[in-house]
Each structure stands twice: as structure tokens, then as C-alpha cells.
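[audit] Reproducing an earlier prediction to check determinism. Same input, same settings, fresh worker. If the C-alpha cells differ from the archived copy the diff job will pick it up downstream; this log only records the rerun itself.
[audit] input (151 residues):
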Amino acid sequence: MNNDQVSSGLWFFIGGAICMGSLQYKLGTLASPASGLMPFFAGLAICIFAGSGFIHATTKRRQGEKWGRIFAGLKWPNAFIILASLFAYALLLVPLGFLLCTALFIGFLLRAIIPQRWPVIIGGAFLTAVCSYLIFEVWLKAQLPKGLFGF
């Protein structure tokens, strides 16, 4: 067995456990769903994706792919940069506000992880912040932190 087969089997087991746990609640119908229907479908989706992953991993194994190091090729400095920037984002969200903090966060990631040109960084950060603001604040009416400038 290779890594993908083992992880797919584990996820299939987890999806099956979710399905079994959701059967303790009423499922209802699609027209009138009860509290167990969504967890059941979520577990079923996990099982389907895990099964297709297992089949794909089995065909790769037949082509000669064996066990490999799970973390081989992982860029640890990037992972720590992302983790630290998420922590800073959470700390600065209320004082700076959603719009400014999101623009700075996306701009930092576009510059630090895979360096981009400045027009791409500024445009991407601005576009991401404005679009997410419109989605969450305007469309979904979520209460986002206003910050220094009141927006």
C-alpha cells in the first residue's frame, strides 16, 4: 500500500462513521430535511471522494509508485510565514478593520510566499479585500470590524 491508499482508507472510515452517527437522528426527505440529513450527505460525500482517491492511488501503485515521505518537498519556512501572518491577521483585525487588514494580509502573502510584481500585489490585495467586503458586509450583512477609518 502507498500513502494515498492509507489516507483514503482512513477518510473512508471517517465518512462511514459520520454516516452511521447521523442515522441516530431523523433524516427526513429532500423536500423536508431533518437534522441528520446534512451530516449524512457530508459523510457520504467523504466516502465517495475517499473511494475515488483509493481507486486512483491503486492505479498509481500498479504503475510502480511505492511509499514516499509524506513531508518531502514541503517548504517549511512558507508554512511558518503563513501561520504567523494568520496569527497577525487575527490580532490586527479589530484595530485595523476588515478592509485594511485583509488588503495588507493578501498583499503580504502575495509578496512573501510567491513574490509577485507590485501591480499584481496591489491590485490583487485591493480586489480581494473589496470583493470579500462586498460579499460579507453588503450581501450577507455580516458585522465586520470597522477599524480606524470606519469602513
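[audit] rerun output stored. Observation attached for the diff report: The mean pLDDT is 90.
[audit] end
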